[in-house]
Queue: 4 jobs
Job 1
Amino acid sequence: RATAARIRSLRHGGAERVVRAHPRLNAAQPRTRLMVDLHVHSTCSDGTIAPQDLPNIARTLGLTGLALTDHDTVAGIARFMKAARVCGLRAIAGVEISATYTNPETGGAGDGELHLLGYFPQWSAATVRALRPLALIRKSRHQRNPQIVDRLRGLGLDITYADVCQESDGQVIGRPHIAATLLRKGYVKNIQQAYDRYVGDRAPAYVPKRIFSQRSAIALIARAGGIPVLAHPKTLRFRAVDTLHCFVRQLRDQGLRGIEAFYPTHSRHDTDTYRELAASLDLFVTGGSDFHGDNK
């Protein structure tokens, strides 16, 4: 049901979805409107559905293509691609990488976090080797999870790391599992409230993780043969459209190839703004649900 709601929210926003991502992604396809989702997560990062189960769910919902974009890992790609071939779904190997960026409105260096989606039309063992530096980010995440719990305890909440591990049920632990633990213990009414009050990027228990710079993340995706795309640009929270335009132009000059214009929290006005921005900078447009299963 959660998946269906995500897909319906994308349909409501209008949906070319992928327009010019890569010749291999569009080769020999009829000129018809295809419904795809280019931003989903699995249990290999912070989702609740195994990568091999996502393609069948997508087919049931009428999708013709799906990209697995787990946070800072490609561990689920092989299972995902195999399952997609079996059920006849077009699959795209992907990843979502966190990176620091310089906010042009403040002039501060590394004062924000953005997410970059990387899509890999030619997935191979060489791609996996080129993405090995992602292990540094995963190590940082494992180190910061107990630190977040310590901060929550410092705020007077009765929560232990063992509680979080129990909530994860063997999955890769992330903030969604900490948020779910807070919900289970009755400290919040829903997951979003857990982020807003405690573990979100601007909340008191937040602990930053070690991540790449924007330039390094784009370069990493490109070296691995991937296509770098700016994810959910609204989360950058720039006050002025001109600032956003200048910033995205900077990313394009560093190798950015596209913008995720279609996203559940983007209004129609937001989507139109990002599509116009993409057209002005010769970037292609993508869209996705950012589906995490029960976690989001």
Job 2
Amino acid sequence: TTADAGLWRYPNGLAAYQQALASNTTTAMTADEIHAVGLREVARIEGEMDAVLRSLGRREGTVEERMVALRKELQPPAEPDPRPMILARYTAAVRDAERRAQSEDRLLTAAAEIIAEEGYLACTLDRVGLRAGFSRGLASRKYGSKDGLIEAVIWRVSDLVNGQVDRAIEGTDDPLQQLLALFDSFVDLALHDTSVRAYFVLFAATIANRLETRSVFDEIERRFGARIEALVVAAQARGEIPSALPPAHVAFMVGSLLAGVSIETVSDARGQDPHDLSVLQQNLRTMLRAALRG
């Protein structure tokens, strides 16, 4: 036995851990870099907790000690039976969260529809609220500004795409097949999903008009590009993609192809026959596979 914990202490453990990172995450960071991020996040969160606790008049002791004391004070008395009251509070909180989630979904769906159909300028907070079936002011109260609403739309699309990719590659160990599944999933959404079309309408507007949302797009592209690159590295390790090709360049090519297809379909997809779109998707996958294998 040993007090040392971690895969690193086994033969080739570090390499195995790096492979696990590449296969199961979207990051291109090393284990040490991830650990450093974790330490920074712990310090940041504890700093925020300390500020909140001090605002409540709790200044003595460590953050952990003050949290323990707070939990004890919030613990309801044993008599009378506190369970009905606790269940009622949690039920009300869950219902409130469900209502807020439903209203947010309707607002973001309405915003994406307006953007996809009429463009960025047509998407006003008043129009989004009315199209979602709410008051004119709800979108403004919820997001604060049009930029806040647009950022929410962008992040929602990012979650949608990554979730679809996760489901597509589930149960597939072959990194090249995972990469092709990622490509297929993205193209399928670009061809058929209104919110993804709205994303690329916004992307084009951001480039043309230097909108404040550019930094959000940059971060999403960085994360998705890192996910593609990790699959390229894994496929190269198995000899499925020529190792002479720089992984970053291959990832750039795949990402550029996805962006190009998506922007083209913004104006063309709705006017094409569904069968033609299916054939297009199959042919794109075939061409990508051939290009990757060299």
Job 3
Amino acid sequence: DSGIGKTSLAKVIVNELDIRYRMLNATINNKKDFDVVVEEARVYNGIVLKFFLYKMKAYILLALFAYALSARGFATRYWDCCKPSCSWTSNAGSGREARECDTRMNRIFDHNARSKCDGGPSTTCISQVPHVQSSNLAYAFAAAPGGGPNVCGKCFKLTFDGQGKYETKTNHQKLRGKQLIIMATNIGYDVAGGQFDLMIPGGGVGIFNGCAGIMSTAGKQYGGLLSDCEEQVGWDGDVYSKRKQCLTNKCNSEFSSNPTAKKGCLFLADWMEAPGNPTMDYEETPCPDYLKQNY
């Protein structure tokens, strides 16, 4: 779209052709008629130019407004099996608490229950693994930066730009243009500004570890199985398929008896292309039904 609607553009073209036709006839008839048509064309073209400028100004303002609403950030990953911080009423507010489960993945409705990471029964529900909606759109839950306004239950659209925070490989480039809508279930006080810590089994436990008796915690404390694969495969050359295959093998092995956790782990290898800390633009967005139903 050049900035005007198709109907308006058609009118401009028709009028332009009409003026040029009349100018040609005027040159054949007499100079006076020609001068009249030229002046008419000058006035008409001035109106068209103003029309285009107003349209361009409107589109520029809209682009600046959209830019102001978005911000730059990057994505990491974790799964610590702790009670989500947004499950506490004091963090989320009454009626906005995130779901929590026991170690057998049965729902817990006591929002005062202690976290498994603190010796209690409450842990993260396995139903909160990422979900693929299409080849370019997926949903996930995440820890959002703490210290600001309450983010519990808010959703953000992450649009990946094909780059990485520390390196850029084909894995990152393949992710370019894909969108991940996340819903905040954790307030990450160890999460930097603009960082979204995606909940992915096998993504590393981070500071806390409540996964004993629930699922495998293999892999690096920070970065999990993919960080292991990055070290095994190396950092030079074309590592795209090697990292993906390494991570796929580890997901299948570590979560062979837990199909839902395995699905979540493979999300990082398949839909996300096994990138390390990809960068993106993000903005707050309405929450889709899938995330609201599993929050």
Job 4
Amino acid sequence: CYPHVYVACVNIGYNKEQYLKALQEANNHNGPSIIIAYAPCIEHGIKSGMEHSLDDAYLASKCGYFLTFRYNPDNQTFNLDSKDVDFDKYDELLEFLKKLPIGPKLEVKLTGGETSLYPDQIRLAYKKLKKLERYKNTEVIFTTISNGTNMKALIELFDEGILDPWGSKISWDGIYSASKSRKPKNKLYTDSYFNNNIKLLGQSKYADKVLVRTALTKNTVGNLCESALFAFDAGCTKWEYYYLTDADYYKDPEFIQEFSDQISDLMLAYGEGYLQIQNVDTYLYTKYILPQLYP
């Protein structure tokens, strides 16, 4: 969320009170407001018909398909209003998905928390949701955005065909991921621990498929080039940095200069065409922050 924008996801079929509260808060906010509403329509191809739309809407939030929340910049509070969601209701989620029009491929992106620590739950979810292919002309694929804490488990899931390495990403905040960036409470998770996991990925047959990504922050910018070279030397061939949309320090002259120096070092290490062959978003981020590099 942008710091000055009121944002809410609402579902009148799930929680009418939350829906009305969001409208009131958005109206009272002195600034831009965005409300995303779950609004089923017969044009969406709902199989059960509009007479059951509120029931379907309730199930959409109850099974975790559509979460409701409110972010109010006036008091800088984020409220996750979907408090009774049961993410283990795979059968209910399957029934809900069967009612929707679905394209030739349905990607289930596993994010939030550390997905690599729960491989057995991923296997269960895959087994349950793969059943959708019996009822729909679609292919269900699972991908993840993970910190790679349990890289061995992720590689096993790739081997089993449960996770698709294409589209999967490892969020790694560089060579000082633990000490300078994430600072985990568990003393097991050191810089060497996460760096060794990058090496493990680089030694696997998925090194050219899984994307390694590094957050561009004040804690990582000073080692951006070194981190990228570490990932490449480890055998990983896909790397990008990504920036945080609400970070004001991207306007800081010292930050911009440090970032410019790091990008220049990468160009020297891999040649003038380096940035052009990287992820498209990465190219756009660089162009956004350092327009002088792109006349």
